[in-house]
Amino acid sequence: MRPLVLPRTPRSAVGRLLLTALAALALTFAMLTVAPAPSAQAHGWISDPPSRQDLCYTGAVKDCGPVQYEPWSVEAKKGSMQCSGGGRFTELDNESRAWPRQALKTNQTFTWDIVANHSTSTWEYFVDGKLHTTINDNGAMPPKRFTHQINNLPEGNHKIFVRWNIADTVNAFYQCIDAYITPGGNPAPTTPAPQPTTPAPQPTTPAPQPTTPAPQPTTPAPTTPAPQPGNGSCTATVRAANSWGSGFQGEVTVKAGTAAVTSWKVTVNGATITQAWNSVLSGTTTLANAGWNGKLAAGASTTAGFIANGSGTGLSATCTAS
Fold first, then answer.
1. Distances (CA, A) of 208 to 91, 149, 211
2. Model-level pTM greater than 0.70?
3. How do 247-256 and 234-244 pair as beta strands?
4. Is the separation of the CB atoms in 286 and 233 below 8 Å?
């Protein structure tokens, strides 16, 4: 009986199979090592008491750079102790600026505004660089507005530094508040001007009096008429400040025409608005002025922001005023 002989695979076929397997393994390794870490999709900031970026956003501090348009975007890698997080808004790190001190209580409530939430690991509150309080959210999603109660803050002048650590990325969001802390939240004292200790010398000889009376004007001085109620027109421009997924954050700029206006209303085309600030949202496309920014002098302007669904392209806006 002849022995059973199995067919032999040609050497060239074995080589091709081996090369194919090695190539697939190398491609898999490259994808694992090159894939970038996900970036945070969350955006938010402390609005009360005002953080440095909030002061820039409201115009209380001028010349802040781009952060004045997006205070919710102070994002960088975790672990930094800089107000900017070491990111792009370096104006926030400038300690030589006269950042206004906020009156805080020793048991203080901090209000956060979130424009795009994300799962959160921890919130860390530091006082003068020393960790004071950690709040563990265990991956929870924060609401659009919420508060933290931080107790037993030390009295006096201090710098409050806050890190919002995102759960599933390498990034965090950063806040700094320049504070004057008292039990009752009293404002920082002002330094009075020094008073002279030696009285100024008094003249011993009376000053000469004029013998000829000063001429009186024959034409009455012009008077400035009181401003009239606004009845002018307005224009509006709209832009997408940044976007994520199926939504974006937009900004509307309203400008009065050649006459003052007392109120304005803007219709945004190309977006479905879900949230607005510095304005009152009506429906999903119309923004009306808030109580404090409706009156505009001739040629003056104001801005309002919003969150909307959509891509943020093809936007337009119309404005009506009274």
1. 58, 69, 9
2. no
3. antiparallel
4. no
Measure the CA–CA gap between 28 and 20, rounded to whole angstroms: 13
Give me the numbers of helices (H) and strands (E) for the chain, helices first please.
Answer: 2, 17
**Is the same domain home to 178 and 238?**
no
Using CB atoms within 10 Å of the CB of residue 181, give its burial: 0 to 12 exposed, 13 to 18 middle, 19+ buried.
buried
Which of 121, 205, 228 lies closest to 165 in space, CA to CA? 121
By C-alpha distance, which of 65, 69, 68 is closest to 55? Answer: 68
Top pLDDT among 244 and 266 is at: 266
Boundaries of domain holding 287: 234-321
Q: How many CB atoms lie under 10 A from the CB of residue 110?
A: 21
pLDDT value at residue 235:
96
What is the count of structural domains for the chain?
Answer: 2
How far apart, in whole angstroms, are the C-alpha atoms of residue 133 and residue 124?
6
